[in-house]
Design brief:
The chain is mostly helical and 124 residues long. The chain is built from 3 helices and no strands.
Length: 124
């Protein structure tokens, strides 16, 4: 019977998978919600705003991933002794990604409330 080297490695892998796969799944859920809203015949602006909020979340998340990748590419490579510079560059990239993801989450919450409001308003 083989086990993981440590629980911290396993939990770190699970959290990494959640943080990488969670945001795209959130965008997909918002998109499906906007499509279901369209089938309920709301006012035209409600559907457009739902799609605009979904697109905004997608663009912000894409910018976060691109920013993190660019920050990772800027990390000095090789056998340099500047470990502090590497750590600082990595921390800045992580910070930028987390800030953008937080903004995307706020917009996603607004989009979810918007969709739920129109579902309630249309009596379903």
């Amino acid at each position: 019977m083989r086990s993981f080297p440590s629980w911290s490695l396993f939990l770190g892998s699970v959290f990494a998978a959640i943080f990488v796969l969670g945001p795209p799944l959130l965008v997909f859920a918002l998109f499906r919600s906007a499509q279901r809203l369209r089938k309920r015949s709301p006012p035209h602006f409600a559907f457009i705003i739902a799609n605009a909020l979904t697109a905004t979340v997608s663009v912000i998340m894409f910018a976060a991933y691109v920013g993190a990748f660019v920050a990772w590419m800027r990390i000095p490579g090789g056998e340099s002794d500047d470990a502090g510079g590497k750590a600082r560059a990595l921390a800045e990239g992580i910070s930028e990604m987390m800030n953008l993801e937080a903004i995307a989450l706020l917009v996603a919450i607004i989009a979810a409330f918007w969709s739920r409001f129109w579902k309630w308003r249309l009596g379903e």
